[in-house]
């Protein structure tokens, strides 16, 4: 149902300048997407690490001093008995954990939706201890004439979802945490439903069952309640591990159209279409049996974390749905399809 752009991948790590001296870009992926003043803007997740030297391990960190966040390279001797490597994800030193990569949000801009120029500096980067392990996977929704951006923040307290708002994509106001640990994959609906703001979210399930897509509503975008589970993973090879929401749903005559991701056998990610009731969006009208997109091309099957297609950004151009997605946790790609055809495929 979705046709890949022949220019894929649109953005690679080589297209993104590092945010600080000593950092190196490993990934530019999982973009939020919006149309703004005649341009397509992508809010890229940029993952950075540090160059390594023999006998040492170097990790990207932020130091918070006097209200300032300073990107810093921490260097530790591998021979130090207090240094413990944790596979490829990080290192523990004297009980303190550090990640091997650090993410922030960077804006890429395009007049045609295909060819992008990446801003030289981060748009959203860690500013406090609650974000000290990075900022990931932004989703942007136009609401009440403003642009609301929700994103995952990571710290020793695990991961959760925060909200910010901008009017110009130059300055940004942080509104704080809206879903506490452990919760992510939040997508805000582009208008109120029954007088309330509405969101899909994905609380972690470390007990019974598998991580699923939930509904919530709010009077003010900050305080959320009326939580209920909307959709659970099916017993298929595509959804054997968990599912999670994508970006802001699209309002159609048939219902709210959204695209969610599924993690299945061998940690393989695919994308599925979902249709929700217009007036009661916690009710599923239709759910696709087959994926809209699954890893097939080399840039989707091979990379930093292979066999991944993941979307948190879409742009509507008439009947054409432009789905921007991350491939292999490394690059930014595009696939397009007809909204009418997707609705007819259920």
- CATH class type: Mainly Beta
Shape: globular
Order of helices and strands: EEEEEEEEEEEEEEEEEEEEEEEHEEEH
In total, the number of strands is: 26
CA-atom Rg in angstroms:
20 Å
Class from helix and strand fractions: mainly beta
> What is the number of independent domains?
1
Overall residue-averaged pLDDT value = 96
CATH architecture: 5 Propeller
Layout of strands and helices, then pairs:
Layout: E1 3-4, E2 23-36, E3 39-50, E4 56-65, E5 68-77, E6 83-86, E7 90-93, E8 96-99, E9 102-110, E10 117-118, E11 134-143, E12 146-155, E13 158-166, E14 173-179, E15 183-188, E16 197-203, E17 213-218, E18 225-231, E19 242-244, E20 250-251, E21 256-263, E22 269-276, E23 284-287, H1 298-301, E24 309-317, E25 320-327, E26 331-338, H2 339-344
